[in-house]
Design brief:
92 residues; mainly alpha; 0% strand; Phosphate acetyltransferase; Phos_Acetyltrans/Butyryltrans
Length: 92
């Protein structure tokens, strides 16, 4: 676990060597925490659109029944996939 890292240092070993030479995580980070929902949404959309990744979520927790939300920009495959994920959360 490490503290704040700039994204390039978090994911690039070459950059990490220069910016954070004493960090064991830098260059190999696999979890990113954003300061608020707006910043998180920006990161999520960049990864989804620029990386051509499938994005699922948000997956809401702590409610009385499984419920999830979809982006207004989602496609049919994302709607289908979230329906499957939500159905999988149903408890007998």
């Amino acid at each position: 676990m490490d503290g704040e890292l700039q994204f390039d240092a978090a994911v690039s070993p070459r950059v990490a060597h220069t910016k954070c030479p004493d960090s064991e995580v830098a260059g190999h980070a696999n979890t990113f925490i954003f300061p608020d929902i707006n910043a998180g949404n920006i990161g999520y959309k960049i990864c989804q659109r620029m990386g051509s990744f499938d994005a699922y979520g948000p997956i809401l927790q702590g409610l009385n029944a499984p419920i999830n939300d979809l982006s207004r920009g989602c496609n049919a495959q994302e709607v289908y996939s979230m329906a499957i994920i939500t159905a999988g959360l149903v408890e007998d």
